[in-house]
Amino acid sequence: MSLYRIRNFIITAVLVVLAFVLQTTVFSRIHFLGYAPNLLLVLTFIYGYSDSRIVGMLIGFFSGLLMDVFFCDVIGYHALVFLLIGFVSGIWNSLFYSDDLYIPLLLLVLSDLFYHAVCFVVWYVLKARFELGYYLIRVMLPEFLLTFIAGLLLYKPVSALIYKLKEVPEQ
After folding, report:
1. Residue 107 contacts residue 92 (beta carbons within 8 Å)
2. Which domains are assigned to the chain?
3. pLDDT of residue 95
4. Are the C-beta atoms of residues 69 and 110 closer than 8 Å to each other?
5. Alpha helices in the chain (DSSP H)
């Protein structure tokens, strides 16, 4: 394994851990928000969309695994959902690639809607709680807006970093 691939792995791992720490500590403790942006979902989407399906799947799997290990009773739930988001965002890159910010943000919104739909089914419907209105207003909308704002702020710098990391340095 070459040095630049090791460097890329370390930088990516630091980004995932930093996003996890910010999402679970700093942003969740800000009282006026009540919710935190899903930075791991944003990072998974950006890596899948900017790099490839495989990288998106790996970032999504390990991001979701972090969430599962620390906050979930079932190991693998978030890992599977984020893995699917990373895979689909890599497919979207080959279909909808654009230099504009509109298409990636629209696809990020669809990814977040998918995440919340799966969460609603697993955590509400399977427990016979059909409170869709409550979930939409109290859970989905605030987190959705914060995730959208985080995606808006993070897409360009993170995708520029990904393209910079993909360049092979001259020997």
Report:
1. yes
2. 3-166 (1.10.1760)
3. 79
4. no
5. 3-21, 39-50, 53-71, 77-96, 102-123, 132-134, 141-166
